[in-house]
Amino acid sequence: MSAPPSLKAPATAAAASPRAAAAARVTVLRSACARPTRRLQFSASAAVAGASTEMTDDNLGWAERSLEELGSLPDNDTFCLMALSPLDGRYDRFIKDLMPFFSEFGLIRYRVLIEVKWLLKLSQIPEITEVPPFSEEAQLFLNGIVQNFGIDDAKEVKKIEKITNHDVKAVEYFLKQRCSSNPEIAKVSEFFHFACTSEDINNLSHALALKEGVNGVMFPGMIDICKAMCSLATQNSAYPVLSRTHGQPASPTTVGKEMANFAARLSDIGKSFSEVKILGKFAGAVGNYNAHVVAYPEVDWPKVAEEFIRSLGLQFNPYVTQIEPHDYISKLFNLFIQFNNVLTDFDRDMWSYISLGYFKQIPKAGEVGSSTMPHKINPIDFENSDGNLHLANGILSAISMKLPISRLQRDLTDSTVLRNLGVGLGHSLLAYRATIRGVSKVQVNESRLAEDLEKTWEVLAEPIQTVMRRYGIPEPYEKLKELTRGQAVTKDSMQQFIDGLDISEEVRSKLAKLTPHSYTGLAEDLAKDIEKLVDLESGFKIK
């Protein structure tokens, strides 16, 4: 497809200059972006297991098709070697499910969708007689542009943009050219982008990308993590483990209870996502419907805008400038930051437990832990997750703090920031899948748990002094402090102390039966009950 007559590019010289040759090499490199043909996976655990969870939402079939298109292109390895971001290079296989939503292709496609839907909406407004209702054939033609939009179409838009130097205007020209073969639509093609500012199109595009990408890709990965932690909790509910506060031995707990703590925290954050409203604006250049009212003063434009935005599955923001102020993105990303903080806490605890020998790592055939120490099995997945969560939160925090600030009715500083929505989410998704892999490779080391517990009989000072308080024995805390603080405490020395207490034989017998292994309170029951508390049905969704 050629560019519009008024946008013809200047002829190029027959002999390519060094700069042109370099540009040609870049073009070849960029085209070499193969992706292995596959079905979209919305499950982090499925990705680990090698299973495939296909998309069930027909409305998102386009995303799956776009990945299949990428899979048909050659030489992905070359592209990955030269990719500036490791998300698009080394790690692309872990996060490619986000590409249809937050890539340049995804943004262009969403813009095409908004422009087409707006023209269809105009045809339904009786007062706008210049755009009469479309025939069924014309509607199918317009909807087909969106439904069948692919990478080659996006490339056509980019060709036009090279001439216009304006990305949204390029979409408008693309649609006019695409519809020139349909006389019914061609007659009203000037109503593409009618009364719109670019941000009317852009804000709805980013909103749809966030809603569909987060619901379809991010939340399933987060739910998988919560489920994995619930499984760790219930399966290991009875294994006693020495607690550590300030890094020092403390009252025992169970492995399962410590996993349950994280499951509860993360699932609780998940419930808050449902409170986020994905907002949109469609009020023109400065938010007042200025041009709309001049052209068609009889139309209730705020009502039309609200109907249009809600038809897209978004919420309407009536008070805006040229831009939707992005406050909801800040709220959404702050929740991701909170989730990521808790997951960082989990990753570091798992790293510590592995370091202490409380978890064994299952070796994988062929893997190398160290280039010089053959014995090493390192907790690389938890470390990878930790690092990526740090990167993700840095980016998400920067976006969250920047987007709500815009000079007067609008400056352009939000535009380049909005193009990085997928970067912060990409590092988050990479971390989620790394954590899942890490969890799948560990198992409890019962002998190490028992070994440390057997060395720390001093932890029984707490229950003994508490029982002494009940029965009126003076200075119970001070007596146990003298016995245990900085002292080597054994089973025998603790038993000797109990034998010297002025208490009944029944109470003495109960205290004598206490061991560091059995002194876990209600930890086992709390771990077993975690699935009753964790609610993954009402959380992790944006309506």
- CATH topology heading of the largest domain: Fumarase C, Chain A, domain 2
Percent helix range? 55-70%
Number of strands: 6
Enumerate how many helices there are, as a single number.
26
Strand order of the largest sheet: 1-2
- Which second-level CATH architecture of the largest domain applies? Up-down Bundle
**β-sheet strand percentage:** under 5%
Overall mean confidence score, pLDDT = 89
Task: Give the end-to-end Cα distance, rounded to a whole number of Å.
Answer: 39 Å
CATH class type of the largest domain: Mainly Alpha
How is the topology of this model organized?
Elements (H helix, E strand, L loop, with lengths): L17 H14 L12 H6 L11 H11 L4 H7 L9 H4 L3 H4 L1 H19 L13 H12 L3 H14 L2 H12 L4 H4 L11 H38 L4 E6 L2 E7 H19 L5 E2 L9 H6 L5 H11 L3 E2 L10 H30 L2 E3 L18 H23 L10 H6 L2 H20 L1 E3 L1 H9 L6 H10 L5 H9 L6 H9 L5 H9 L9 H6 L1 H4 L10
Parallel strand pairs: 3-4
Antiparallel strand pairs: 1-2, 5-6
Characteristics of this structure?
543 residues; mainly alpha; Fumarase C, Chain A, domain 2; Ribonucleotide Reductase Protein R1, domain 1; two-stranded parallel sheet; 26 helices; 58% helix; elongated; purine biosynthesis; (S)-2-(5-amino-1-(5-phospho-D-ribosyl)imidazole-4-carboxamido) succinate lyase (fumarate-forming) activity; Fumarate_lyase_N
